[in-house]
## 1
Amino acid sequence: MPRCNWQLCGRSLALLSSVSLLAISSYMHRQPGREAPALAMPTEATSSVTDSAVTDRNGAIAPVLDSASITYQMHVFEHYTVHVAHIPISQGWAIVPAVSESLQPLPQFVQAEVGSTMQPVAAINAGFFDPQNQLTTSHIVVGGESVADPQDNERLMQNPDLTVHLPQILNRSEFRRYRCPTGDRYAIAQHLELAPPDCVLIDAVGAGPRILPDLALAAEAFLTVDEGGTMRDALGSSGRNARSAIALLPNGDVLLAMAAQQSEAPTQSGISLEEMATFLASLGAADALNLDGGSSAGLWIEGQAIYGRVNGAGDRIERPIKSVLLVVPAELEH
C-alpha cells in the first residue's frame, strides 16, 4: 500500500489509515435500514486524534483528526452517503492531476505513483471522457502543459447535436492550481479565464458545472433547449445518482466529496447536483465544482477505494476512468 514517508513529511497522519478503514468498513458493511454506527477510536489514539466526534444533521458520526491532518468523514442521509476528505492545504498538502492514455481504475492511478517522488494519500476521480474512444472531453493541464484537449476528440467536435454549444463546452469550469509569489493557490475558473496577475497556471482539470456559488448548468451547456423546445440534461442533474465534487473553503482548504448510492435501493438513491451544492455549502464551502459522476464516482483514501454507483443487484461499480486528482505532500511534489 503506497504510504507517505512520515519522517520526511512531518505530518500527524500515522493514524489516518486505521481511522479511515474503520469508517469505510462500517459503511461497506452497513445493513439495510440501519444507521451508520458511531466509530470506535483506536486504542492507540493519543495526540493525533482528538477526543471529540462530529455528528452531522442525519446522525452519522465520524472521528476527527487534528488540524494538521487530513480528515475523513462519512455523512449518512436518507437517499445517499457522502464521503468527505478535508485537505488542510496550509499544512503542506498539494492536489495534483494525473491522466492516463488509456482508461484505468482509480487505484491504478495511485499505484502508478509508488516509488515516485509523489506519495498520494488520497485521490478522487476527475474529468469527463468518452468511454467509446477513451479520449478526454475535459481540458487537463499538468505542470503548465496541456496534456489532454477535448478539441482532439472528433466524436465531441463533430457531434451535430453539440455544434451550437461547443463554445460553452470548451469553456467549462475547471479546478486549477496557480503558482504565485506568495505560494500556490487553488481556484475554480472557466477554461478561458486568465490567471491572476503575477500568477502562473500550473495544473488544471476541467469538469463541471460549477455548483457554488451558483449552479451553472445552462451557462456551461449541461442543460440545453433546442429549437423545438426539447430539453437536454446531460448529467441528469435533478435526478439521483452517484456524484463527485471538489470544493474550496474560505481559508484555502479543499474538500473532496463523493456521494454514494445505497446498495439496498440502487434505482432510488443518490444525490442531485442541487443537493450536493447545498451539502457542500453546509460545510462552509464558498466555491465548488462538479466532477465526473455516475459509474466514475470514486474516492481513494489511504489504501481503500470507495465507489459511488451500484448496479441493479446493489453491487458497487468500479469503472475505469481517464483522470484523477491526487493529494500528495507538497514538498515531495515539487
## 2
Amino acid sequence: MKNHVLVFATSSLLLFANACAPSSPQTPTDSAPATPVALTPETTPQKPAPEVPQTETQPAPTPPQATPKTNAPRPKPLTETTPIVEPVVAEESSEKVAKPDHAAWNDLLKKYVSTDGKVNYKGFKQDMPALEAYLNELTSHPIQSDWSRTEKMAYWINAYNAFTIKLILDNYPLKSIIALDNGKTWDVKRVQLGDKTYSLNGIENDILRPQYKDARIHFAVNCAAKSCPPLLNRAWTGDNLSKYLDQQAKAFINNSKYNKISADAVQISKIFEWYAADFGDIIAYLNKYSNVKINPSATVTYIEYDWALNE
C-alpha cells in the first residue's frame, strides 16, 4: 500500500511540474501578435511632401500659361536672305490711308523737265519746298494692300525718280551722280516710305524688277545720267502707266542717241547688257518696238555709258 501511494504521489508531482513548466515556442498564427519583420519598399512609409501654405504671398502653383516671350528675337525677314523685299503695306487699321496725290510732282516735272528728258536742276532747286512736300506725301501715304498693281508700280517709279532728283539737288552743282558716295550712292538707304527706309537699288532691284517682272521698268526709272532712258516729264499713275511704259520703250529704242539699229547690226545701250535677264531674247525684244525690222542673226554690241548729269 505504501508503495502504491508513493507511486501515485510521484506521478502527481510529475504532472504538476509539467503543468507549471514553460511551454516550448509556438509558430505564430493569425490570432497571435505579429513579430517585427524587415520593411520592404512597399511597406516602408514615405515621407509626406511638405504642404505649401495657401497664402496671399505664396499662392498655390498653377499650370503655366502660354504667353509670348517678350525677349524672343523676331524671325529674320525673308529679305535678309534673298534679294526680294516685301512691298510697303500699312498695318490693318480702322482708318483707311488715302492714296498719295501725284499732282504736285506732275507740275514740277512739266515745269523743269523737257520733252526729251533734260532736267533743269537750277530751276528745280528754287522749288525745293514743293519737292519736299511731295516726298512727304509719299512718305505719309505708303502702299496699301488694296491698291491695284498699276497704282503700286506707279508709286515705286515716282518715288525712285523724285528721291533721285532730291539727291542731285542736295549736292548740286554736280557733274555726275557717280561722284556721290564713292560711286555707290544707289546702295545708301535714304528713301523714307512709311516706317521703312529704302535704297534706290532696293526699289529697283528688290521690288520693281522681281515683283512686277516688266522690262519696261528700265525705261521709266531715271538715274540722272545722260545715257539713262529720258525722265518722263509727267507723273506716273495707275491710269497712265501702261500707255507711258510703251511710249518710253519705243522712244528710247528708236532714239539714235541711245541705240543705233539696222537690219543686220545693232549697237545698243548698256542697259540691255546689264539687265539681259529681264529682256530675254534681245533681238526679239527690240523688234517689239523698233521701227526697223532686225534680223535674228544681227550682230549685237553695246555702247559705253555716259554718266554725265542729264541736264
## 3
Amino acid sequence: MKFIYILFFLCVSLQLNAQQGQTKSPKGSSKKEIRGYEKAIEYYSSRIKNQPLNASVYYNRAVAKSGLNNYQEAILDYNKAIELDSSDAIYYWGRGVAKFSLKKLEEAIIDYDNAIKINPNDARVYSNRALVKENLNNFKGAILDYNKAIELDSTQPSIYYNRGVLREALKIYPKAIKDYSKVIELNPTDAAAYYNRGNIKSTLEMHQSAFKDYNKAIRLNPNNPDYYYNRGIAKDDLKDYKAAIKDYSKVIELNPKDTSGYYNRGLSKYNLGEISSSCLDFKKAVKLGSLDAANLIKEYCPD
C-alpha cells in the first residue's frame, strides 16, 4: 500500500502542474524520477496480471504513464479503471488531466463534470476545470470555477494565482492584485506572484510599489531575465535610463540571445545621448532577428 500512497501524491502533483498550465516533461525530469515511473509501470503491470478486476491498479499505472507524458496509454488505463468502477471521482479527474494535456478540451470538461457529480466538494477538480474553460475562452465560467474551488479550499495559493492570471488578462486589475497578494500571504517565497503584481502596479503607474515587488521577485529568483526586463521598462517609463540600462544588461547577461534586451538597452542609451553605443545594441538586436531594430538603425545610426 505504500507504493499506492506515493503514486496518489504523484497524481496530485500532476494535477497541480496541469492546473498551472504546465506538464512535466520526461526530458525535464531526473533519471531517478523517470526510472521511478518506469518501475511503477512494471509493478502495476504485474499486479494487473494477478488482479485484472482491480480498478485502482489501472488507475495507478495510468498515473505513472502520465508521469512519462504517455497520455494516450494513460487514458486507456483510466478507461479500464472507470469501466471497472465508475463511482470513483479521481479516475475521471485523472483522465481529464490526460485529455487536457492532449488538448482534448471538450472531453476533459466532460470528465471533470463527471468527477464533480460524484464528489462536488473537491476544490482541485474545479480548479482544473477552470483552466480548461480558460483555454476554451469561457472566462466567466473559469472564474466561477476558481471561486468555487476557493470556497471549498482557501489554503491553496495556486488557485488564487491562476485566478489572478485570468483577472489580469481580463484587465480586472484590482481583483488580480488581491489574488496575487493572497498568494504571497500563503506563500511568501512565490517570486512569480510578486512579479505579476508588480506588472499590474506598473501598468497602473504605481511605480514605487511596483519596484518593491520587482525587487522582491528578483531577490527570490535572481536568475529570471523577465524580472529584470520588466523592471527596466518601468524605469524607462520614469526616464531613469541609467538604471534601466543596468537591468537590460542583466537580461543580456542571463540570456545573451534576448533580442529585446539589446533593443531596449539601445533605446535607453539613445535617450541618454549615447548614440554610438546604442547603435551597437541595435545592430546586435538585428543579428538576433529584430526588424524593429533594423528600422531604428536606418533612422538613427548613420554609417
## 4
Amino acid sequence: MRVNVPCSIKLSLYAQFKLILVIISFGAINPAFSQQVVFDYDGNTYTIGDYGDQSWTLQNYRCTSYADGTPIPEFNGTQSEWAALTTGAYTHVNNDSTNDEIYGLLYNGYAVKGVHDNDASTPNKVFAPEGYQIPSAEQYVSLGAWLADNGFNFTSSVNAYTSAAALAAGEWESSNAPGSPGKSLDTNGMALNTSGFGWYATGWRDNIGFELMGKYGPHWTRTAADWDASEDWSYTVGINWENARVFLNGWTNNVGFPVRLVQDKICEEYNNGSVFNESVRYASAIDCWTNIDADGDGRSWGAGRGQAGTFGTDVSFVSSSYWVISQTSGTVLYPDNWLISPAIDLSSYLPSDSLTLEYNVTGRTKDYSQEHYYGLPGSG
C-alpha cells in the first residue's frame, strides 16, 4: 500500500474499526528525577519525577477535596456501609491518619470518577488539580515501557514489565521470588525504589476491611474495565510482594485504593521533527489521537493490553467493543469505532519523493473470521 506518508507505522489492530493513519513522532527521552513540586487544593505538596514524556507525583494523593474545593467525605462507618456507598469517599489506611504522609488516602472508585451525589443530572467533579490527571491504564503501560527501556527491569525482556522492585518502597512481606519487592537485596534480588517512584504496599479497603497491607500495592486508573458497560468497574495497576511483574486488574467502585497523578507531555512532542514511526510502545500515545465511539456502546479504542489481556505484553491498539463484551456474552458485535491520528506536516517533502506507509494488522481471535477493519489515509 503506497500513500503520501513518510515512513513506517506498525499497528496491531483488533476487531472491526475505522482508522485514519498518519505518522507520529516521539520526543527525546528525558532523564528521571528532574523533580518539581505540585500543590493540591488542601495545600499538600507532591514531588514530581519525570519518566520520559510523563511527569508523575512521587507520593500517593492525600487531598480531601475535589479540584474545585468540594469536600470528599471522610468515611468512618462499618465495612458493610463502606461497600454500600454510591458516591465518593476516602478513608485513612487502617483508619489511622498518621499513615497519610507515607501511604496517602484510600479513595473509592466513585471519588476517582468525581461522583459526589446521587443526582444523575449533576456533572461529576474533577478529581485532580489543574494540569494533572488520574493515570489511564495506557499511561501506566507507558511508564512500564520507559522503565524497561532504561534498565529498570529485573529480566532482560522489554515487553514483560518486571520493574516491581525498582518501583517499590518501604516494608514488604518477605518472598523467595527473584526480582520481587519481598526479595530485595537478597541473592537474585534488587535494591528497592531505584526508579524513585516510591510505590508502597498499602493494601486496600473493601467490604471485609483493610486487607493485605505489606503484600499488595494497587493504584486506581481512570480506565473503565472493558467488559463492563455500566462503568461500575475500573482498572487498577499494582505490584505485590512475591512477583517481579506489574499487574493490571479490574475492581468495583466500592473498593478503596491509593491514587497517583500524571502529566503526560507526549502529545506535545509529536511534531518535533524526529523520525516518524509509531510502534504504539508508549501506549499513552493513544491519548493524542481522536478516539470516537461512533456506535455509542461506551467502548472504543484502547492501547497496551496485548492479546492475552495482561499488563506488559506486546503493546497494541485494541478495539474493546468486540474483544471483551463478546467474550462474556457470546454476542457478535459490529463496532463502529474511529481512531484518528494527529496530522503531520509533510510540507518539507517534494511531490517527487517516494513515501511508503507500512502497518501490521492482527485479529483478536482466529475463531471469528468476520473480523474486518478499514485504514483510511486522509488529508485536510
